[in-house]
Amino acid sequence: MHRRHLLTGLLATSAMMTLPAFGYEVNKTDAEWKKILSPETYRVLRQADTEYPGTSPLLNEHRKGIFSCAGCNLDLYSSDTKFESGTGWPSFWQPLKNAVLTKSDRSLGMERTEVLCRRCGGHLGHVFDDGPKPTGLRYCMNGVALKFRTI
After folding, report:
1. Is 69 marked active-site?
2. Of 11, 17, 24, 101, which one has the fewest beta carbons inside 10 Å?
3. Residues 75, 111 contacting (CB under 8 angstroms)
4. Residue 82: domain span
5. Bridge partner residues of 142 (DSSP)
6. Which residues pair with 148 in a beta bridge?
7. What is the CATH number of the domain that holds 27?
8. What angle is formed at CA 80 by the lines to CA 123 and CA 63, rounded to 5 degrees?
9. CA atoms within 13 A on the CB side of 100
10. Per the structure, how many domains does the chain have?
11. Cβ neighbours of 103 (radius 10 Å)
């Protein structure tokens, strides 16, 4: 690896929000999460599962509004940044400021970037670099991990 590639990678990594060192603002036991979340939402938010593509009602949500975390209600995405990615999951080109964290995910034998709720650490989905302008990013989110409200 060339030194400039290493330096570029380190700068890009430090620019991204990463996991907090001392936990999250919203902390609950597994029993508490299971009590307030549906089984499917629990599997996605708390166990990093993935919903089946094309199954979320939020995939076809086109009203003006805000998508928030199904676990802690933190506002995550504006409908202004939602787009049709053709993947079967609600997709956004940018989260709201200070809404999500990212971390490296090598769970399927490949390098991906996992997206988590900043407040409760819930698994939301993954971010990819094949999205539209202006960011070029595709935040591919599990609809079951989100709630929607109109504004």
Report:
1. no
2. 11
3. no
4. 3-150
5. none
6. 67
7. 2.170.150.20
8. 90
9. 28
10. 1
11. 14
